[in-house]
Amino acid sequence: MAEGRAVETEGLERVFKGGIRAVDGVDLAVERGEVFGFLGPNGAGKSTTVRMLATLLQPTGGRASVAGHDLVGDPAAVRRSIGVALQDAAIDPYMTGRELLHLQAVLHSFSRDAGRRRAVELLARVDLEAAADRRVGTYSGGMRRRLDLALALVHEPEVLFLDEPTTGLDPISRLTLWNEVRRLNGEGTTVFLTTQYLEEADQLAGRVAIIDGGRIVAEGTPAQLKAQVGDPTLTVTLADGSQAQAAEDALRALGELLPCRTGTVALRLPAGAASLPAVVRALDDAGVAVAGLDLAEPTLDDVFVARTGRHLEAEGDDATAAAAPAPA
To answer: Domain spanning 231-296 has what CATH number?
Structure first.
C-alpha cells in the first residue's frame, strides 16, 4: 500500500452477526489534498466504511491505511490524523457550542488558553459566533452540522471524514457547508465525503466512487463516469411544430435522433456543446425557426442506473423523507 496516500484500502470487509456483509471487498485509493466523494443510497455501506476508516468499527477482513498509518496496527496514530463528523453524532444538548469546542480542545491536549483561542477561531469560521453561548439543544439543524464540522477541525486534521454532512439541511445551509468544504480543501485538507446527493458529489468531489450492496460499482471523476454512460442529449424546441420533419432531416447527420414530445426534436450529440454551432447552421439553412435549445449532459444518476438498474435519486429522496434513516 502506498504510504503517501490519504486513504487506501484493499479488500476491506465488514460482516455483522447473521452473516450480513455490509462492506464486501472495497478497494479505495484517495490521494492527499483531494475531495473524494463516496456516493450511494442508504444501506449501501457508506457509513460502515467510514466508521472502519475512523477506527470506530473493526474490519473483519482486508487492509487499510489512513494518513499513512495502518488502520488495525496503529489506530491511535490514525485518530490523531483525522477529523470525523458523523451524521448521527451525539452532542450534549445542554452544553453550549463554545463549551463543546473547549472540551474537544482539552481532549486533544490543548492548553486552556490555546483551546479558548481555537474555539474563537472555529466559531468565527463556521459563523456561530452569535450562538456560541447558547445551548446546542436550541440550534437548528444547519447550526448543529456547522458545529459538528468545527468540532472535527479542532486539531487541524490531515484527513476529514464527512458522513452525509448536508442530510436534512435547507438549500442555504447546504451551500454554506459546501463553501466551507471547498475552503478547507483549498487549504490542503483531504476530504472524504459520503453522500446520497448527486449534485453534492458533482459539485465538490474531484473523484467519486459509487457503492451499492457493499461493493464499488464505479469509480472515476464525475466527467469520466458520465462519459461512460453516453453522449449529451440536445432537445430543440421548435417555434412551429409543423417544421418537425424539416428539423429532423436537417439534424440527422449530426447525431442519433431520439423519441421526443410534440413540437421538439431530440438527438444525441457525441461532441456535446462543440456541435451547437453546426446545429444552429443546419437549422438556419433549412429555414427552421427555433424557440429554444437545451443540452443535457448525462448525470451521476445515469451512471448508477447503468451499473445497478435502479435510480439513486429516487432512493435518496425516499431515505431523506424517512423519519429514521436506515443504517448505511
So the answer is: 3.30.70.980
